[in-house]
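thought: fold this chain, then report.
action: predict
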Amino acid sequence: MKIHSHLWFESQAEEAMAFYTSIFEDSKILGRIDLPDPELSVVRFELGGLPITALNAHSHTPYNEAFSFQVETGDQAETDYYWNALTADGGKEQPCGWLTDKFGIYWQVTPTRLLDMIADPNREKAGRAMQAMYKMKKIIIADLERAYQG
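observation:
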């Protein structure tokens, strides 16, 4: 058994696949499936080992925060890279490290350090980091560290 994330597009599945696989180094294109209806098509690809199926099927329900992809980053440079790449060409910044890309897909770009801080058993320090995060769009690790340390 294998579980795939599935994305429904009006007509941009191949464009989205090319966009995402250009951003994530450890990605690969698995192929295209032509369906009996020439107006429909399916592409398959992987991002970081996560299999994704994308469908072109005309109109679809808009995406929302109830489903998102989380990119866990190791440092500020990596955070900046993914943030800038995913917001390029019409993406939108959202609060607390969230964004929508140019296709309307929701992403969370989350430094590992943020996760460590908010999980700290010292709830006062964790709370300060969380409050600092609430004021951010893109996560700035140095600002989180200052808040965390008090």
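thought: worth noting. The longest strand covers residues 27-34.
final: tokens above.
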